[in-house]
Amino acid sequence: MYSEIKLDDPNLGDLEKEYILKAIDSNYVSTAGPFVPEFEEKFARYLNVNSCVSVQSGTAAIHMALYELGIGAGDEVIVPAITFIATVNPIVYCGGTPVFVDVDANTWNIDPEKIEKAITPKTKAIIVVHLYGNPCDMDKIMKIAEEHGLYVIEDATESLGAIYKGRYTGTIGHMGCFSFNGNKVITTGGGGMIATNDKKRAGHIKYLVNQARDNLPGYHHSEIGFNYRMTNLEAALGLAQFERLDEFLTKKQLFKKIYENAFNGIEVIELQKEYADAISSSWLFSIKIDTKKVKKTIPEIQDKLKARGIPSRRIFKPIVDMPPYLKYKKGNYDNSYDIYERGLNLPSSTLNGPEDIEYTAKSLLEILEI
């Protein structure tokens, strides 16, 4: 008898309760309090960056990164066609234009060659997404950006702890954006973080997310700001989760090995591949299935998994097919469509045990009649 298998649920326990109670007992439950700066400082030390600024969500982090870098009307920002919608919406919030390019067929990440072909005189930035925790080809991307004078924002909302050539994702571009939503590697319930080595920009973002309130008597605001502050209560939860980050990452690597061993040599299953010298955080373990050979669609496979008590999730739908972004659909997105049509996210929550992952892999192979 197997436990209830979880797809991406958070892992909370006594330590989290302890920190939350500390915040409540202190009476600092809103945006004032000691846990917010402590969380920012510990996060910056972990990433080995100069500054981190906490915000209300990963979406807010991307929005503030774009805003701080001056993205506005007429500016183009290159993004992958496959990602969560929150990567793209902030471009429009700023008045910019998203330019969608296809992803690499093997890593599922934005294709550097497609980036270069999409650059125009209006291009101002590139948002790279380390999809499902898998690092992008940052060397090539940073080289392209440098040659064309472009900013690089890393959407590391799914890749906390992932490493590219000895550096954490979110620390290689001009700004890195993290999410602490309930299903991410660690959670604050709802929250995000911006990481950068530019102290001046970090200080300005910190000012902006606090409604651009000046340090003067009374309420004086010299700029239009945002109410994007993280609360002390959220930061308390974040600090507890942060103490367990190594535990979570280790467990996700174990799950990854179990899946890889189970699917090794299976012709109809293709894994999301990593670049050389890259280590995925394995936020969500993901595969592609040869649906033609197994004669089953992804929804049909999901239904059969569900009947066995196994949750799963489809890959993100290409954003160019969503109503607000149809007008930006230009060019070829063959790899994105193929990954969407044949891709599947498998249980990866650290609430699961190794036996749950083994059961999932075994069940999938049985469903595919392998």
TrEMBL record:
Pfam families: DegT_DnrJ_EryC1. InterPro entries: DegT/StrS_aminotransferase, LegC-like, PyrdxlP-dep_Trfase, PyrdxlP-dep_Trfase_major, PyrdxlP-dep_Trfase_small. Its cofactor is pyridoxal 5'-phosphate. One of its GO terms (biological process) is polysaccharide biosynthetic process. The active site is at residue 184. Coiled coil: none annotated. The modification N6-(pyridoxal phosphate)lysine is found at residue 184. Keywords: Aminotransferase, Pyridoxal phosphate, Transferase. The keyword Transferase applies. It comes from the Bacteria. GO terms for molecular function: pyridoxal phosphate binding; transaminase activity. Signal peptide: none annotated. Belongs to the DegT/DnrJ/EryC1 family. This is Perosamine synthetase.
